[in-house]
Amino acid sequence: MLEFERSVPMARAIEMPSARFAIGDIVRHRLFDFRGVIFDVDPVFANSEEWYESIPEAIRPSKEQPFYHLFAENAESAYVAYVSQQNLIPDESDEPIDHPSIATMFDRIEDGRYQLRAEHRQ
């Protein structure tokens, strides 16, 4: 064994929760009446502590799961939502999302998912 190998501690695998949804997926909130299209994913909670504490404790989700940024809509308005994985389910309606920002990120719906515009693909 090389001297270098003995002096470097073994790296430990970090468990990361895996995301169930991807950018472009259309989802619905499990508890509240809104739906949206995912435009970004955080592997774990990445919002402010103030935002997190504003959620009633009885329904406050764990921070150790993916959180999704949505172009969201309900019957009254369109807005941006930040939602934990445990509170999302696939939307089965086959209806498009009516949000003014969708055209800035996505081209069209194909096979039930919004397709990223070419300039946003890596």
Automatic annotation (TrEMBL):
Hemimethylated DNA-binding domain ranges (all copies): 18-117
Stored InterPro entries: Clp_protease_adapter_ClpF, Hemimethylated_DNA-bd_dom, Hemimethylated_DNA-bd_sf
UniProt keyword terms in alphabetical order: Stress response
Entry keyword annotation includes Translocase: no
Gene3D superfamilies recorded: Hemimethylated DNA-binding domain
Record SUPFAM superfamilies: YccV-like
PANTHER family from the UniProt entry: HEMIMETHYLATED DNA-BINDING DOMAIN-CONTAINING PROTEIN
Full protein name: Heat shock protein HspQ
Gene: hspQ
